[in-house]
Design a protein that fits this description.
This protein is mainly β. The chain has strands at about 1-5, 10-15, 20-25, 30-35, 40-50, 60-70, 75-80, 85-90, 95-105, 105-115.
Length: about 120
Amino acid sequence: TQCTVEPDGDLAAITDTLGRVSLIDMGTKQIVRMWKGFRDTTCGWIEMPRKTQAKAGQKKKTLYLVIHSRQRRIVEVWRTRHGPRVKTMQVNRESQIISVREMSRLGYISCCYLVHSCQP
């Protein structure tokens, strides 16, 4: 079981031994989305700046959940809450995702890097 909280602290992704990834709204403590069939899984977050008509000083970001299933050997990227899967890729079993915070022109954003070995 693993819990990964998104950078603003509004959502958390929790994995369990039954192969589920649950998206939890931290304000209400309710499950707002669930994915099944993801055993031996780790999660991370990606924040992407987006253009808006917001007032000066407001910075909008789109939030994505990265799900890496070692058993299925895939990485999937989903827009959080009710969005679609935006990317899926095959990876080797030893691959890992590493979540980091990076500085951008809109402030700090979250990124995930896929790390894998080229050794057989």
